[in-house]
Fold this protein.
Amino acid sequence: MVNLGLFSGKETLKTVNLSFRIPYFTHWGQNLLVCGSEPVLGSWNVKQGLSLNPVHQGDELIWCGNIKVPSGFECEYSYYVVDDNRKVLRWEAGKKRKIFLPEGIQDGEVIEFHDLWQTAADALFFRSALKNVIFHKSWSFDLETPVGAFPTKLDQEDSVIVHFSISCPKIEEDTSAYVIGSSAQLGQWKIQGGLKLSYAGESSWEANCFSLNSSSTYKYCQHGKAGNISLEVGPQRELCVDTTSKEPPKYISLSDGIFREMPWRGAGVAIPMFSVRSEEDLGVGEFLDLKLLVDWAVDSGFHLVQLLPVNDTSVNGMWWDSYPYSSLSVFALHPLYLRVQALSKDMSKEIMQEIMDAKEQLDGKDVDYEATMATKLSIAKKIFSVEKDSVLTSSSFKKFFSENEEWLKPYAAFCFLRDFFETSDHSQWGRFSQFSKDKLEKLVSKDSVHYDIICFHYYIQFHLYLQLSEAAAYARKKRVVLKGDLPIGVDRNSVDTWVNPTLFRMNTSTGAPPDYFDKNGQNWGFPTYNWEEMSKDNYAWWRARLAQMAKYFTAYRIDHILGFFRIWELPEHAITGLVGKFRPSIPLSQEELEKEGIWDFDRLSRPYVRQEILQEKFGDSWAVIASNFLNEYQKLCYEFKEDCNTEKKIVSKLKACAGKSSWLESEDKIRSELFDLIKNVVLIRDPEDARKFYPRFNLEDTSSFQALDDHSKNVLKRLYYDYYFQRQETLWSQNALKTLPALLNSSDMLACGEDLGLIPNCVHPVMQELGLIGLRIQRMPSEPGLEFGIPSQYSYMTVCAPSCHDCSTMRAWWEENEERRSRFYKNVIGSNDVPPSQCVPDVAHFILRQHVESPSMWAIFPLQDLLALKEEYTTTRPAVEETINDPTNPKHYWRYRVHVSLESLMRDKEIKLSIRKLVQSSGRSLPPLDEVDGNATTAVIPPEKQQVANGQGRILNGAPQK
């Protein structure tokens, strides 16, 4: 590679003029520049990149720029949108572009690069879910031409060589790509005379054409072996050659993006791993059950199977660990999903009988978490004691260990210490409370007396890896995407907080402000992240976490993606989720408040407890409550005593005082009312800076606020709105643009974000910029003023669903509220009749059809909602029992099991055909039912369901034109 910066001006050097040209609409104050790997383009320092100048051509805004480089110059480059200070506002997605100069280019000749902005949506088709699974080809194209290759000579002195390049990620076998257009060289719109493209690798097809015309229109098309021709949709492309300039180009490189087809759309099924039921499992779904689930998905027309998190959550050693979002380790898999029958091919009759007995005992309506875990680990230990030597010395185990020992050793050591000290709270582990590499190596040493215990944890993780890998490979073979789930937090008593304590803010707790799920907010209990510390090694912990997931999954859901913009942070002593603040956020300063005439900060930030409030809440018991929990610091004014001035302290004191006969109210009511009192504040003082404050969420609902004067009320209402809805937008956007790219670039999985709840305005533009697919639940519309979402109006970059694991199922929701049901029946279904009291199959079919026919890239349905299509499955299980999670209950038992086995569902051809017809009639892609000689046989999409994109004029790229 030649570096222009190495040459001095005195030396004779053959130079070439490079001209960049890209259509892109910008807003006021935005500019485009090119930045690349060589010094002449900034050496990837955007501030040193090449600025482009805007030129209007018809209804397009074209950005142009020129540089001189030596012949033989090679470089990678990308386009960036910047502000007037060259601060990056956005960057194009996809791979870096490359510059290859023609070998025969002469001194002073011009080569123009006509590029199109690479959108994040286009880049999705190079993610593993689509590239390696759905569009996986058992055939391969022969490399016919080097990327970017020009002919070495010009045939005519005044001719221009145009290099066409198009990406065709979905091209079928025995298909050729062509350019056809208005000029004679492009066949005058006839494929017989068109320009045939050659395969250049990485889904790229390229060809060169000698052009004499100043302009021509063209399109790309694909020509199959059977004679079928597929012309790209949308308006004609246009090539303009400026032959009137002093230095007309001799070479033009056209980078035309992706072959324009109808938007690809797919469908999937969602079910937690623990909820799956099969005839082989021991009381809970197991990784090997996924193979049968994949078969059912294919038969039903689904390209995707979505799971909840599958990481080990064995923190408390009881049913609380059923909560799948509180991981003990973000790397280890959960032993719950182990199939013990697959641990050995040569098990004793006694163990086989024990497995058969356990299968019968654990085959209940719901998951018995504790009994299932105990049974599986007990059986696994017996098999391990017999086969440990052969397994641990095998080449496959050694390979697994060497690739995973960085997390596997700490995990095994943690599990040993957890069981030895009978707690996962590593602060209680004496000298082992502080993690160190030296202590770790001693703990896992082969010379230790507990080495067998350590190896047992290795052994379990090895077999979990084998079983999930087998299921994942099977899914890929069947063209089914296995979609995982990335929890936003980790348990505070976890391997990760033990090994990397500086990455977490251990004196805090994570949650969510009041929203659709809970009017009092949520407290998940996880410590918040120390993003500043994480950034020091470019988020290595996150990158390793995603790389581990990518071993099994080709797509993933980012749980609570809002947490990467800002997190709802609560003090560690909080139990409920209401009195928190956003981190990061710009607080209200004491100076700012004083300028507005707000000065009594103690009054505003301490619980407002007056005698009349106590009498209203507790009636005749108020004096007894006050004497136990409060001090009267001035006449009729109270404050909480030191031993009960937090929610956790209140709970502890109530337990200590349990059974006091002088209390007329129940303990639950006393706790609830005391919690209300302790949260009766207007401002929350920052515990790390006493001169900073945060407005309490829904502060107008407090009696503390109602007792203020009108001036203070008006000021605080205005500052409240500013804090929650205005001043943070830029900060949160910048925060997400620092953290999320590190996740997205650490694997090639397809990423979706759960963007439900209180959504800041900055979220959706950033997700669009990064190519993140959002979530749309019909009963939780993101559009203001709507009670029910309108699936036909959803954007393409979304996953749509009638329900999810965090809310009631479609059937249960239908039965919950008669008035709401009537409004839905009238306004959405369009009937003035009295709706049925239950979600009958016809209603279910209508709702599901709404979703599969939406423009959303994915329609993913909980299995419970699909079973509502058949009355047989709805009459054998009450709807209320199908709900997976109750977000209002922090100690909810995650134990739902499907009431029908996968084997039974496979035998039910009626429901499979019903679902497949729904998917097929919507125009969504279907996985092949069978393969013949590597060729997939797919269903034909009815012409009336094909969405036609008819554009007018030339293609516009980038931001929408105002």
